[in-house]
Design a protein that fits this description.
This protein is α/β, with parallel strands linked by helices. It is built from 20 helices and 17 strands.
Length: 454
């Protein structure tokens, strides 16, 4: 495993797809993931090697098939893993079943590195019974140009967190569910009047990087009815973007948020600590905040009374019905994908392996012993998330209305330009000025004004 990982780092270790040793009727498959025993994502590596592979081989044997499966580990930086995959796929090599970040899907599809599952596997890919258990919005993570290129491995969701103790002092309800941006601002004003140092924290600026996009401007853009990219056109200085930036202006220009916090190198970490200390009233974040930040046991900003004090609620649209797709509430999600290599010599068996990794049995095994997470399957989530109210809430209430980042190569540059636009507003520019600056940058990123929606 160490040798394979070292080869992955160097980019020289190309694994032949479906490579056969000439063993007659034996079908040899490989499955690759950026995980390795004793290193990165070690738990996932162990699950694949110790449970998935032997159970799958056993199940295939019961069907009369002689199948062997090898796990091809990596333990490298995500960009190194991406480069390795690109080299493999471009040269017709690589494992039969591969994991990719959802944000790479469009780029890989455009390059021809991955292809629609139905084209690679056949009708079995479209008729997989698991699709019925995956919300349509989550299926969107694996869809590009209306075709399914992979199966979603997992996902997450963004909500508004709030401090119930601070809300009580401000005369706000413990079961708070704002129905508009104005109601969020009104709550912020009451928190400010009651002495809360930072009533509202919504990530902004470039120091917070992608967290500004995913836990800030993109949910707000969706709440204003905008989509970052639609029908291959990017949104420019349009009204939804101006509305989203306008909310930033009201929060940070109106004394409801801390502008300096958005400029500090460790601003996001500081916001976590301040929330845990009862200095922030409302904060927009993903389920990681609940699981990994204010977790009373091992969070980076532990809150012993988290379950009693921390409330959570859906992110409202600007006004009811004004969100993307006419929604009242919105969210953003990320996630990983698993797909079949178009170069596989055994695509049907490779898909069976892929589907097996996302079977209810496999997902339950993977998420046991404190490793609980939101899976793509509603049937599994209903069982494993029992006793996990926040994760259940996101699975049941948030995922059906969520949205995803455009899975295309230029997205990171567009995201950086959005972050700069929020920074400009926090620093005092008007939403119109910041939106105009963003559009000028966008034209240079996406190939001209012709690729921007009017």
């Amino acid at each position: 495993m160490a040798v394979v990982a070292a080869l992955a780092i160097s980019g020289l270790g190309l694994v032949a797809c479906g490579e056969s040793s000439g063993s007659g009727d034996t079908i040899e498959l490989t499955i690759a993931q950026n995980a390795i025993a004793g290193g990165k994502n070690a738990r996932s590596a162990g699950h694949l090697a110790d449970w998935v592979i032997p159970k799958f081989v056993e199940a295939q044997k019961a069907k009369g098939k002689d199948v062997t499966v090898k796990f091809v580990p990596s333990g490298v930086d995500d960009e190194q893993y991406k480069t390795k995959l690109s080299l493999d796929l471009k040269s017709g090599k690589g494992a039969d079943v591969i994991d990719i970040d959802g944000i790479w899907a469009g780029e890989f599809a455009e390059a021809g590195y991955i292809k629609p599952l139905a084209d690679v596997v056949g009708p079995e890919a479209e008729s997989w019974d698991g699709w019925a258990q995956i919300p349509e919005a989550v299926q969107g993570l694996a869809t590009y140009n209306d075709k399914k290129y992979a199966l979603p491995v997992g996902t997450d969701g963004r909500v508004l967190y709030f401090n119930k103790t601070l809300f009580g002092k401000a005369g706000l309800p413990a079961d708070w569910q704002p129905k508009s941006w104005q109601e969020v601002l009104d709550a912020g004003a009451k928190l400010k009047s009651s002495g809360v140092p930072v009533p509202i924290q919504i990530n902004a600026g470039t120091a917070m990087g992608e967290a500004t996009s995913m836990q800030g401007v993109l949910p707000l853009l969706a709440g204003a009815g905008g989509e970052l990219q639609r029908d291959s056109k990017w949104i420019g200085a349009a009204q939804p973007l101006k509305d989203a930036l306008g909310l930033y202006q009201k929060i940070y220009g109106g004394g409801l948020g801390d502008p300096k916090l958005q400029q500090e190198a460790k601003g996001r970490d500081k916001s976590f600590q301040q929330f845990a200390e009862g200095k922030i009233g409302i904060l927009m974040e993903g389920d990681y905040f609940w699981r990994g930040v204010v977790n009373p046991t091992d969070g980076v900003a532990k809150m012993a009374d988290r379950d009693e004090v921390v409330g959570y609620t859906k992110i409202p649209a600007m006004e009811p019905g004004k969100g993307v797709r006419g929604q009242d509430f919105v969210s953003m999600s990320g996630g990983a994908l698993r797909t079949v290599n178009p170069n596989s010599k055994h695509p049907k068996e490779a898909f069976e392996l892929l589907a097996f990794t996302l079977s209810p049995e496999a997902l339950k095994e993977e998420t046991k012993d404190g490793n609980v997470r939101i899976t793509p399957r509603t049937d599994v989530n209903k069982e494993i998330l029992a006793g996990q109210p926040l994760l259940t809430y996101i699975s049941d209430e948030v995922l059906p209305l969520t949205a995803f980042r455009p899975p295309v190569a230029v997205y990171p540059q567009v995201s950086a330009a959005l972050q700069e636009a929020t920074a400009a507003v926090v620093s005092g520019k008007t939403p119109d000025e910041a939106a105009a600056d963003y559009q000028r940058k966008l034209e240079g990123i996406v190939g001209g004004a012709g690729n921007i929606a009017s």
